[in-house]
């Protein structure tokens, strides 16, 4: 469409268009990489324009001017989210920050809590019906445009056309400025690749095929998604599409076909990345751009089954409080979309949220897992909202856990050199018991190879993994759920009490090499419960003693035999040559398990009614 022929009265130069902005106006500017650079430049260079309040979510172009005293005397900047380029200016008090959930910003405009006089936006050229596209910036831009008295649009052929709610007609725009320039690109900086790789590994463990994902703002969420390349049929419902997702689109990892809300569509609000990403999004019908009040509405998010929110944080305290928008008193980013998506994921059938965070900052000098948030730090996400926290040292499951359990979970995934200190600080605050043993300072990444699954004849699955300090309470529940005969066969006495001292010693003695304990977990109701425990403990450099306990209703399903197989594999890796066991003679089920696995085992009966079993491993033939 030739705009100069269709609506010549609307077509102005950039310089003439900004003269429509009256002094004292409240001006909204489109978001991030979708901002109209030419219009911003023209507004700032027109020295007659004075006393302007600018509202924007993510700002880029303004960073070129914010250190100019003349600019600051004429413009006040209020941001809903502080971009990396504006961070130093925020620290220095040159800009203002409005802490609000992203889903609520459109409502603030619509209710005129923030009255807008002018909106500066960027659109694609109109089609032959007169419809332009907001392209990669729909988010709060659509609402900002609809609720401003005057709308000035930069018409840029470089802006991709996108599907969804991005379409606006030229009748909705007061003035049009034709100007071609490259769309801003946003590429993540180089960070610690080892930390990213390890966090990506743990995120991969947590994400199942067919899940629908949200990827939060920031370099870390963008970087870890590449570690999901082995998944199938992932879906996307997210605020921002970034370059990290591009390989997953191209490899057909993201198909959206198993989404329960808007299947076969990537639902998003804006796009920030490279020209390659913009070209992929351009006129691509799988991308469905909606405004923030839809994309970020927790009730809408919850309609996606198996929804997983992945976002980052600056620091997390031992109770699970998360800070995302400030470093102490210095505002660093923004509340953004994290809480919206975390609460939506909590309401989703099968959904949950993951907060990813490096364990340290400043070259390992300080821990990001802290006894209390830094003075002045704001709580963006409350301890009641947290599900899972991941560092490069592991996965901490927080949902519905007590303060004691949270401390043990988080201390375990903190950097090894801070774990003991965190436990001591937790004791001072009476979060945990005074005699609590701190978790090992080992790097337990190698334990991830020791995760197994067994499908039972009743169709249920049992997951097997090494015992962790945070399993103390679940271990206690397991022991107390057993019948007297099971306890007697395992401990050779009718033990009635399973004290904290006993349970602490159980995991404190586990070094995962010379002494190993495995637990079997089954989904019972809404949580996983321990249904089996198997362990070995060193007796000499060549031998280890084994023992097992399985819930009575699961006897005869091969659980004990499977645990024995796992333990033998690990024992061989640690140079053991045999297992030994002491079994009561009347415990025929256990004896049968050993006999079946080790036909050449030695069974030596003592006069006290016990059977000593010696089981040599079959070693591979020598080459």
TrEMBL record:
One of its GO terms (molecular function) is hydrolase activity. GO terms for biological process: acetate metabolic process. Keywords: Hydrolase, Transferase. Transmembrane segments: none annotated. InterPro entries: AcetylCoA_hyd_C (IPR026888), AcetylCoA_hyd_C_sf (IPR038460), ActCoA_hydro (IPR046433), ActCoA_hydro_N (IPR003702), Acyl_CoA_acyltransferase (IPR016181), GNAT_dom (IPR000182), NagB/RpiA_transferase-like (IPR037171). SUPFAM superfamilies: Acyl-CoA N-acyltransferases (Nat), NagB/RpiA/CoA transferase-like. Residues 462-620 form the N-acetyltransferase domain. Belongs to the acetyl-CoA hydrolase/transferase family. This is Acyl-CoA hydrolase. It comes from Desulfobacula phenolica.
């Amino acid at each position: 469409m030739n705009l100069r022929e269709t609506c010549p009265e609307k077509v102005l130069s950039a310089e003439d268009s900004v003269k429509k902005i009256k002094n004292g106006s409240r001006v909204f500017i489109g978001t991030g990489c979708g901002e109209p650079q030419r219009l911003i430049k023209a507004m700032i260079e027109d020295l007659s324009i004075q006393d302007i309040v600018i509202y924007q979510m993510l700002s880029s172009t303004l960073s070129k001017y914010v250190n100019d005293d003349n600019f600051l005397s004429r413009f006040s900047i209020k941001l809903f989210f502080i971009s990396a380029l504006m961070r130093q200016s925020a620290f220095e008090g040159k800009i203002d920050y409005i802490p609000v959930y992203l889903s609520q910003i459109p409502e603030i405009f619509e209710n005129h809590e923030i009255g807008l006089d002018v909106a500066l936006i960027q659109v694609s050229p109109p089609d032959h019906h007169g419809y332009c596209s907001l392209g990669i910036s729909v988010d709060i831009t659509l609402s900002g445009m609809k609720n401003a008295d005057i709308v000035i649009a930069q018409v840029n052929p470089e802006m991709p056309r996108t599907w969804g709610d991005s379409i606006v007609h030229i009748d909705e725009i007061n003035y049009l400025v034709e100007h071609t320039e490259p769309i801003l690109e946003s590429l993540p900086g180089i960070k610690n690749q080892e930390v990213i790789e390890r966090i990506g590994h743990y995120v991969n463990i947590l994400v199942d095929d067919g899940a629908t994902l949200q990827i939060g703002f920031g370099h870390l969420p963008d970087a870890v998604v590449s570690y999901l390349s082995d998944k199938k049929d992932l879906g996307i419902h997210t605020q921002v599409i970034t370059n990290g997702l591009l390989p997953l689109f191209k490899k057909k990892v993201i198909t959206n076909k198993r989404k329960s809300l808007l299947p076969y569509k990537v639902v998003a609000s804006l796009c920030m990345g490279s020209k390659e990403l913009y070209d992929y999004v351009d006129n691509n019908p799988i991308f469905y751009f909606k405004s923030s009040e839809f994309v970020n509405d927790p009730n809408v998010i919850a309609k996606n089954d198996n929804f997983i929110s992945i976002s980052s944080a600056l620091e997390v305290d031992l109770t699970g409080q998360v800070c995302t928008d400030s470093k102490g008193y210095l505002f660093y980013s923004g509340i953004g979309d994290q809480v919206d998506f975390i609460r939506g994921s909590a309401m989703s059938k099968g959904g949950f949220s993951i907060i990813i965070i490096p364990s340290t900052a400043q070259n390992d000098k300080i821990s990001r897992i802290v006894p209390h948030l830094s003075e002045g730090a704001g709580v963006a996400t409350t301890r009641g909202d947290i599900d899972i926290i991941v560092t490069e040292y592991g996965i901490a499951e927080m949902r519905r856990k007590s303060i004691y359990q949270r401390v043990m979970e988080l201390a375990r995934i903190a950097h090894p050199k801070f774990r003991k200190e965190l436990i001591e600080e937790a004791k001072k605050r009476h979060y945990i018991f005074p005699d609590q043993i701190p978790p090992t300072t080992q790097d337990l990444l190698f334990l991830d190879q020791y995760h197994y699954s067994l499908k039972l004849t009743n169709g249920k699955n049992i997951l097997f993994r090494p015992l962790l300090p945070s399993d103390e309470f679940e271990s206690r529940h397991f022991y107390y759920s057993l019948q007297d005969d099971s306890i007697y066969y395992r401990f050779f006495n009718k033990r009635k009490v399973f004290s904290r001292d006993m349970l602490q010693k159980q995991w404190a003695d586990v070094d995962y090499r010379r002494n190993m304990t495995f637990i079997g977990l089954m989904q019972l109701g809404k949580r996983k419960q321990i249904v089996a425990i198997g362990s070995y403990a060193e007796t000499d450099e060549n031998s280890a003693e084994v023992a097992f306990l399985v819930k009575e209703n699961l006897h005869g399903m091969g659980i004990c035999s499977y645990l024995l197989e796992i333990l033998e594999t690990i024992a061989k890796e640690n140079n053991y040559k045999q297992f030994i066991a002491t079994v009561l003679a009347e415990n025929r089920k256990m004896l049968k398990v050993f006999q079946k696995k080790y036909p050449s085992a030695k069974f030596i009966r003592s006069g006290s009614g016990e059977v000593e079993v010696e089981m040599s491993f079959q070693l591979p033939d020598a080459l």
